[in-house]
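Lecture notes, continued. The same structure-token format from the folding unit now serves as the input rather than the output. Read the line below as a description of shape only.
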């Protein structure tokens, strides 16, 4: 009997508590959290990508329009430039604003575009604002189902 107890004790010492199922349980408990973090990361990347696209579309449009005075007046071409640059998105409203001024001696006075400045020189500034609506894959309670993203670019028209 004593030999049997020694064998059992040595067997228990050789194989302490078996913990091979513990890792599986820990994985099963943490896997939903890891998947949620992965989905959240993907969603954040999608939002950032869309925001960059909208911003780049505004920049491309203002760069096209600011080439010279003639292109600054071509609203449809400026709009097409923004749309072509954001090919992966559906752009909503694109706002194009021309503003003109006469500058002389550090003083700038707003005037109607096409006006000849009697003193100093004329400035024409083109502003383009783009907008799109972003629809996330996952809709969380308490957050809006869509987000509006805006791009804005301002550049002086070359003469």
């Amino acid at each position: 009997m004593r030999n049997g107890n020694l064998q059992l004790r040595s067997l228990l010492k050789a194989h302490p508590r078996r913990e091979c199922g513990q890792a599986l349980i820990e994985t099963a408990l943490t896997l939903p959290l890891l998947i949620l973090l992965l989905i959240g990361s993907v969603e954040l990347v999608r939002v950032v990508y869309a925001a960059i696209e909208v911003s780049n579309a505004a920049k491309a449009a203002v760069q096209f329009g600011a080439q010279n005075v003639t292109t600054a007046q071509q609203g449809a071409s400026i709009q097409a430039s923004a749309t072509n640059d954001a090919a992966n998105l559906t752009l909503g409203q694109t706002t194009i604003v021309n503003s003109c001024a006469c500058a002389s001696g550090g003083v700038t006075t707003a005037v109607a575009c096409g006006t000849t400045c009697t003193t100093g020189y004329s400035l024409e500034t083109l502003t383009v604002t783009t907008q799109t609506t972003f629809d996330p894959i996952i809709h969380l309670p308490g957050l809006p189902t869509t987000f509006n993203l805006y791009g804005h670019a301002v550049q002086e028209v070359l003469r």
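Point for the exam: The two ends are 107 Å apart (CA to CA).
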